[in-house]
Every structure is written in C-alpha cells, then in structure tokens.
Design brief:
mainly alpha, 167 residues, two-stranded antiparallel ribbon, 2 domains
Length: 167
C-alpha cells in the first residue's frame, strides 16, 4: 500500500495490485505470524525479502481502506477501471471474512444500547454565523494587503455586470 498523493500509477502496478488482492499470496505466512503474536485481528505492515515476509508492525486498531467512495486523485481511465476492480475484490473478501467470523461466534448476538444523553453529547454543534465570520477573518487577514488593491477593480466590474444584467 502506498500513500496515493505521491503515487504515480502504472499499468503493471495496478495489475500487480489486482493479482495480490485476488490471490492473497502471503496468507499462510501472515496467518503464522498472527498466531505467533497471539493477535486475532489487526493490519500487518510488511515487505518481502527472499520470498519471506518481513514484518515491522501489527496495528491492533487499524483503519482498513476508505470504502468504495470516489477517489480524490485522478488517474487514467484504464487504470481507474482496474483499481475499482481491486477495491471490489478486496471489500468482497473483507465482507466474506467478517461473515465467517459472525457465523463462528458462539452464543446469541450482543445487543448494544447507547444512552440518549451520550448520543446527545456527541452531536455536532452547529457554528454560529459570528463564529464562521471570525474564522474567515483569521484565514483572510494575512492576505489582506494583497486582496485590498484588487477589490476596488473587482467590485467595479461586478457592479457593471449587475447593472447590465438588471440585478
């Protein structure tokens, strides 16, 4: 996995990614490492050296992907189609694995009740108009010396446009 902002995608790279996700070539070695570490769930960071998995971290509270949402970085359409297939394949396998965990769980499902006061306390507060304006001022203030000389000509053009359009 590479950080996408610095990644230049190529056809061989996305095909290798698709092959990796669909074949899971290190599954057995990774399972042995998780067993030795006595970890039942986590994300492992590793590389391959001489056909052997070299682990440097098992994250016990991982973020796994970002779902099937639209991407933020544009890539060539032919590569994008393969990357969508990679995601589909990954999330299909991921969902299947969770269903297997759920099916093997002993006992009835655990019901969870969240206290309404907790839900209320976690609700996002909306910002007042004054808070928004103050935040905008803090952002714009450093650029004020650059913006002010441009504002008069801009407002004149805007005024002429409004008069012509009857607004």
């Amino acid at each position: 996995m590479l950080k996408h902002t610095a990644t230049e995608f190529s056809l061989p790279m996305v095909l290798e990614e698709l092959d990796y996700v669909s074949q899971n070539p290190h599954e057995q070695q990774l399972a042995e490492i998780f067993k030795l570490a006595r970890v039942e769930y986590g994300r492992i960071d590793y590389a391959i050296k001489g056909a052997k998995v070299q682990t440097w971290e098992i994250n016990l509270n991982p973020t796994i992907g970002r779902g099937l949402r639209p991407r933020t970085k544009e890539i060539a359409p032919e590569l994008d189609a393969i990357r969508r297939e990679v995601k589909r394949c990954f999330y299909e396998r991921f969902e299947r694995a969770w269903k297997e965990v759920q099916a093997s769980a002993a006992g009835p499902p655990v019901s969870i009740r969240i206290d309404p006061d907790t839900v209320s306390a976690a609700t996002v507060n909306t910002l007042s108009q004054n808070q928004i304006l103050n935040g905008m001022r803090r952002v714009v203030r450093p650029a004020k010396r650059l913006i002010e000389p441009l504002s008069s000509p801009f407002l004149q053009v805007l005024g002429r446009w409004a008069r012509r359009s009857g607004k």
